[in-house]
Structure formats: C-alpha cells, structure tokens
Amino acid sequence: MRVFHFLKEKVNLKELWNRVCSLEPNKKVKIVVIFLAVMVGLTIISRVTYQMILPKVVMGQADSGTIRHTIHTQAEVKSLSESPVFTTEGLLVDKVVVSTGQAVRKGDVLYTIEKHTLDQMIAEEQGEVNAVSKQIQQLKAESDGNSVSAEVYSLQQERWKKEQLLQEHKKIKRAGYRICAPRDGVVTAIETKAGQKTQGTADVMLADSGQNLTAVVTLSSDEESSYVSQDTIASVSSLDGKSADNLVIASIDNREAEGTIVLNIPLPQSEFSLGQLLSVELNSASQKYDCCIPRSALNMEGSSYFVFTVTAEETILGREYTAKKMEVTLLDKNRESVAVEGISSGQMIIVQSDKILSDGNKVRKMR
Q: Where are the annotated coiled coils located (predicted)?
C-alpha cells in the first residue's frame, strides 16, 4: 500500500497515459513487446524458482516378476563314500602317523599299536585258548563218545571266539604292529590318539579322494535360509579358479536342535579335492508376483508399509507431478526388491527423493 501511495503522489498516471497515447504507432508496438517480454521473463524466473524448491525424485514403475533370494556362503568338500578303519577293542595306540586331510595310498601306515602290551595280550589269549581246549578234551574223555554235551558245545564256541581274536592280534603283530590304509583315499577324521585304547569302532575315517564328492553347506536357520529348497540353484568356485554352475541340492537336513540347515551339493568328478573350501552362491526364485518394486521405494510407518505413487497433470506452465501416499502389504523381499499388494503393475512410483515427502507434495522429476 505504501508503494501504491508513493506512486500515486510521485507519478501522474493520467499524464503518463496521455503521453503514451500520443506516441507514434511503432513506438506503441515496441512498448507492448517489451512489456510482454518482461512478463515472460518474470514468469520463467517464477517457474524456475518454484521448481527449485520442490523435492527432486527418481521415479520407477511397478512391474510383475519374481523375488530372487541369493545367499553367499562357504562349503567344505566331503566324500559320500567314507569308510571306517578300525581294529579290535582294547589295544593301546602307540602313535598316530597321519593327519586329517592327508592323502594316503593303500598300505600306508595310519597308526601303530604299542608292542609290549600287544605281545602280553597275545600270550594271555594263547593261554586262554589252551585252557579252554584242555577243558573240552577232559569233558570229551568223560563222555561216552557218542554225543557232545551242551557244555562242550558252549566251550567250543568260546574257544572259536578267542582264537579269532588271537589270530587278529597275531596278524597285527606280523604287520609290525601297524594299522594300514586298506585303499587309496584321504583321511577325513581321526577318532583316536597316542596312549588311548581302541574302542572297536572307527579309529580313522577314510574317503575316496576324487569320487562321490559333495559340497557340504551349513546355514543358520533364519529368514534368509528359509527360501532354500531343492529347486535352489547353486554355483561354487575355489581359490584355484575352478568353478561349477547350475548345481542342484541333493539333500536338506534341518537340524532344529542346533539351529542350522545342512545342504549337500554333489560336485562334478575330478574338479575339486577332498577337504577343499569353496565359495558358494545359492539362488532361489520365489513365485511370480503381480507387483514388484525397488526396495528403496518401500517406506515404513509403525508396523505399516507404504509407497508414494505419482500422478501427472498438464498445466499452462508444463507438466506437474504430485506424490500420493498409498498403503501396501509386503509379500516378499530381498536386498534389492520387494513384492507388494495394494498398487497396480505399471503404476509410477517414487523410488528415491532428496527430501522427506508427504501426501500431496508436488515433486520434480530428476533427469
């Protein structure tokens, strides 16, 4: 208002109008052109200023598709053809001469038995066999010779067992008190040690070095591993540059008590070696969803999810974009994408913004 009063006092509008009317036609046109040019310039400046304060956004489009779940982990190469190496129970181990992961040939020494205790055991067993044989002879002498008593039969069975054990121990003595590998392979486990007595079970586990190999993967039981199934495709690679793709999962062992899942992935023959560590990529594809969007487009408020869709309107100053807040239901997700319900496939959405948005905000599309 002060500006208006100032102009009214200082400028005689009637006199100014009369002067304009008295101008030549060419000058009148020139003034009009200048006026219009100034107005256009001011409009452009106003438009640019308006655009500068709007949030800048990256737009995308919702589309149908699947959500791929990828897990990167490690595996150890193991053999499906492991077999135990063992001897009789109660022998004192003198020395273990192999280590886990060591390749051995048929006849290589795995561990040795303590010499003096085995010799003593053989002597005692020989004495027991002789004693039982003497008992049998006495009982037979006392019988009529036409039949074998039940007691004699029982003693014969006892003698046979003692002789079997004695022969097994003599065999170990003849081998130089050594327990050797029955075939070529790789030592995968050692269940005994020097100074310990054998249990009659597996003292050493031996596996084929190049056959029936499998990659054994152990995963934690969590949301990510829940997508792993026998439809999951695996790729493996080793530090020496060897790799194999499109491998299938042969078995899935869900060990609930341990909170783990163990996968067995059969490997190509002669590509990898027993005990080797491999890098593993597991790829699982979900069902097909009607609406998949980039994960950055998904927003969370409390326990609810929402996205901003975009509507476009043509105005005299150009195309204007408006953000509209839409609640959605989350169906599936991975690190890059999410599947949602609540918007349509093909609908334009805001993927990224340089400012916090609210429903109804005007936005500027980034080039």
A: 122-175
Prediction pTM value: 0.57
Q: What is the CATH number of the domain that holds 343?
A: 2.40.420.20
H helices present in the chain, as ranges:
2-10, 13-21, 25-53, 115-142, 150-174
Amino acid symbol at 305: Y
Number of domains the chain contains: 3
At 297-312, the pLDDT tens digits run 999 999 999 999 999 8
- Nearest-CA neighbor of 90 among 201, 185, 170, 235? 201
> Quick one: pLDDT band at residue 22, thresholds 50, 70, 90?
low
Burial of 274 from C-beta contacts in 10 A (0-12 / 13-18 / 19+): buried
Q: Say how many Å lie between the first and final Cα of the chain, rounded.
A: 43
Determine, yes or no, domain membership for 228: no
332 & 294 share domain: yes
Contact 326, 343 (CB under 8 A): yes
All residues at 6 or more sequence positions from 310 whose CB lies less than 8 Å from its CB, including other chains: 57, 59, 321, 322, 323, 324, 348, 349, 350, 363
Range of the domain at 35: 2-51
In a domain, 168, yes or no: yes
**186 Cβ partners below 8 Å, 6+ apart?**
79, 101, 102, 103, 104, 206, 207, 208, 209, 274, 275
Contact 328, 305 (CB under 8 A): yes
Parallel, antiparallel, or unpaired for β 103-104 and 233-237? Answer: unpaired
